[in-house]
Q: What sequence folds into this?
């Protein structure tokens, strides 16, 4: 198993080269009896409908079958035939299909087109690179076809085609079949074409051509030298990414270091690539030293400094340098103030009393950021590199500031921030009321988080759900959001019990929360925002629950009764209020 990296997460796609090498290594370690046991186990997992195909696959291929070449004219003729049918399908749509159909008659071509991609893959597997190049080129061109109304087959429609792998096979075929002196210019043109054809996925990389086959890439040293020379003359984020990759492949960390430090403002991402490579190699001392050097030369207002500071913090943690961890987390937060970085900053202190001054400092920094004029919004395509958020200025907002005030135990500043807002728009946007009011109701209930009344608990869960989006418009995906929500929940579980309120302050906060609840519920129901009736009912019931917990049963009942009477004709709202209150409230 030497040389094969099996550290990938189970959900991550393993490169084909690594997969094949791992399979070969495992087969070499198995005895004939162990192989039989393995085949029996695999057979037991075969679906009934696939048993016959499994039996056929167990026949060892003869040498003639294994080496038999595909017939180029048949594959290319079938692709041409399918291409010629596209205009006919467009005419069929006009005659027999409606605008509501997603693919219309084009759906009939999905299965044959998928089969053609499989045959092109077989040509690539057998080393028939001229055929693979021509077949893939024709197949990708089919995906550019559009009728008079812009309709046609697109990559996202072919769910059974692995397009990054197909792209890698095509580009390797282009490489192998192109004269060495022409490879850089031809491959640059083809990679740019692939980029426009598959704009939603990651950009193509040379590493993909290497990983798609166990065979060495012929003439790679000469190619990388000429490839580097050509890329140095190009502009744009794609060319810059390809330049960094070529530098890493040909010159390793030494080359990345030279590229990064030669022009820090032009190649800031080279620092991230360099630090990633150093981190993989192991010694944290090199990461720590390089990250410090990078921060010393990178422009002060660059959001990417946050990523560099993250490497510095991780290396310092491994080396047990707590002070460096704290300064690095502060640098990361200042460079790109987001909720994850706020929580990382908070975690640099072990106890709530130590965290308070740090989070107050963070809140004041956010106030200063929010006072600055916001740059005009633009499309993701206009950003330096739209593949990730490394160079994206953080969209600090008032919900993020509310998190900072609350986690800093400054309930007065949090209330002042939320009091300026309107009663609607809690779920989306940056209205901090949707976080501050539920947090105060949790605090005013006097109950531990695991024993909150039903509606207070539901309201708090909603606040945490929407609160994870504070200042973070560049989403990291569902898994990222779930992990962030868990971290945020833990932070408040530690912070809320440490709040200390005087009786007069507690009474004032409770009255303010009830006033906001009345205003929000009245606005929602009177304007007939039916989808939000449940939210209004939950907020009112949570307010009543807080009153009941403190022995004010009559007042809690009166709060609900007043809304039942004021909106007695709104049956949908009445039903939501009944569901929220549940059993008869205490008297």
A:
């Amino acid at each position: 198993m030497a040389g094969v990296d099996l550290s990938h997460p189970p959900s991550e796609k393993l490169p084909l080269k690594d997969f094949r090498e791992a399979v070969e290594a495992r087969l070499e370690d198995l005895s004939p009896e162990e192989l039989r046991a393995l085949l029996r186990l695999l057979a037991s997992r075969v679906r009934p409908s696939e048993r016959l195909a499994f039996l056929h696959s167990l026949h060892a291929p003869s040498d003639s079958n294994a080496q038999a070449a595909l017939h180029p004219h048949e594959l290319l003729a079938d692709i041409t035939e399918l291409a010629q049918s596209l205009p006919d399908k467009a005419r069929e749509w006009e005659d027999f299909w409606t605008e509501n159909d997603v693919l219309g008659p084009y759906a009939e071509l999905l299965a044959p087109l998928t089969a053609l991609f499989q045959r092109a893959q077989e040509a690539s597997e057998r080393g028939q690179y001229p055929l693979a190049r021509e077949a893939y080129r024709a197949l990708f061109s089919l995906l550019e076809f559009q009728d008079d109304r812009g309709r046609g087959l697109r990559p996202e429609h072919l769910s059974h085609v692995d397009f990054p792998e197909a792209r890698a096979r095509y580009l390797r075929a282009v490489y192998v079949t192109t004269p060495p002196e022409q490879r850089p210019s031809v491959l640059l043109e083809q990679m740019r074409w692939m980029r426009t054809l598959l704009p939603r996925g990651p950009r193509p990389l040379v590493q993909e051509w290497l990983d798609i086959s166990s065979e060495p890439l012929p003439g790679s040293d000469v190619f990388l030298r000429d490839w580097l020379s050509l890329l140095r003359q190009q502009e744009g984020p794609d060319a810059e990414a390809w330049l960094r990759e070529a530098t890493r492949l040909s010159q390793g960390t030494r080359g990345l270091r030279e590229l990064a430090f030669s022009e820090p403002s032009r190649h800031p991402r080279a620092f991230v690539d360099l630090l990633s490579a150093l981190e993989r190699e192991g010694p944290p001392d090199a990461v720590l030293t390089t990250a410090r050097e990078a921060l010393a030369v990178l422009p002060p207002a660059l959001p990417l400094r946050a990523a560099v500071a993250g490497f510095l913090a991780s290396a310092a943690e491994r080396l047990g340098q707590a002070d460096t961890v704290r300064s690095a987390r502060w640098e990361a937060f200042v460079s790109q103030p987001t909720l994850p970085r706020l929580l990382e900053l908070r975690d640099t202190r072990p106890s709530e009393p130590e965290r308070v001054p740090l989070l107050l400092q963070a809140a004041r920094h956010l106030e200063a950021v929010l006072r600055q004029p916001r740059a005009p919004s633009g499309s993701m395509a206009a950003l330096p590199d739209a593949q990730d958020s490394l160079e994206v200025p953080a969209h600090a907002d008032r919900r993020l500031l509310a998190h900072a005030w609350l986690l800093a135990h400054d309930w007065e500043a949090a209330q002042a921030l939320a009091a300026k807002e309107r009663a609607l728009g809690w779920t989306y946007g940056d209205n901090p009321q949707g976080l501050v009011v539920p947090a105060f109701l949790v605090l005013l209930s006097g109950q531990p988080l695991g024993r909150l009344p039903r509606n207070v608990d539901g309201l708090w869960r909603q606040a945490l759900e929407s609160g994870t989006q504070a200042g973070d418009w560049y989403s990291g995906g569902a898994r990222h959001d779930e992990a962030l929500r868990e971290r945020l929940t833990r932070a408040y579980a530690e912070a809320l019990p440490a709040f200390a309120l005087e009786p007069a302050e507690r009474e004032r906060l409770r009255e303010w929360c009830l006033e906001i609840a009345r205003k929000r519920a009245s606005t929602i129901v009177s304007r007939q925002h039916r989808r939000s009736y449940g939210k209004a009912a939950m907020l009112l019931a949570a307010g009543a629950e807080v009153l009941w917990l403190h022995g004010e049963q009559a007042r809690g009942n009166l709060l609900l009764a007043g809304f039942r009477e004021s909106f007695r004709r709104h049956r949908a709202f009445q039903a939501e209020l009944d569901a929220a209150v549940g059993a008869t409230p205490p008297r």
Summary: Residues 172 and 209 are 5 Å apart (CA to CA).
